[in-house]
Design a protein that fits this description.
single chain, mainly alpha
């Protein structure tokens, strides 16, 4: 019975070890879709990726009507509602 529990613990340990193992890859895809493996090219690719992602696109043609389109979400309270709330 003791041998069975030892074997069971060994298999449980192997199983837990395999679950935690994650393969680390040092490759990324470039703009064309080809894999890049050297560290200089990988850093260059990440730099370009975040530059494109975070670059601000300037809009030149903004009309005045497009600027003031936000409506007030909460209406101002009416006088009778304030008086009713004070009475309560």
């Amino acid at each position: 019975m003791r041998n069975f529990s030892k074997i069971k613990n060994i298999y449980r340990g192997i199983s837990d070890f395999k679950k935690c193992y994650q393969r680390i890859t040092n490759t990324v895809k470039d703009e064309k879709g080809d894999f890049v493996a050297d560290s200089h090219s990988i850093l260059f690719r990440w730099k370009n990726h975040f530059f494109q992602l975070l670059s601000i696109h300037v809009v030149n043609d903004v009309r005045q009507t497009e600027i003031h389109t936000a409506e007030q979400l909460v209406l101002e309270p009416r006088v009778f509602k304030i008086e009713l709330a004070l009475e309560k």
